[in-house]
Amino acid sequence: MENTFEQFLAPVKALNELTLKSIEQIAAIQVKAIQDNANISINSLKSTTEIKDFDSLKDYLQTQVSAAQSVSENAVEDAQEIAKLTESYASGVKELVEKSVS
What we know:
Helix content: over 70%
Order of helices and strands: HH
Number of domains: 1
């Protein structure tokens, strides 16, 4: 009886493991993005204290453009990575369903 029950639950357990792994990977990407963006914001605020004249203001504004580009590029990379993970998850779910049905 226990063996039959284990066989019945095996696909559910595998799906839960796959889901957990996917959630952990996506959460790690999101946490890293939050940390990176917080660091960029903090550094930006710190650099405002160095504005003393027009030239330093110009330098500050240039670094802000670079920071904005960096944030944008990182967001695109993160979105692409999450899309790959989502694709991989969907493929894994499909495999599990096919194994369970056959």
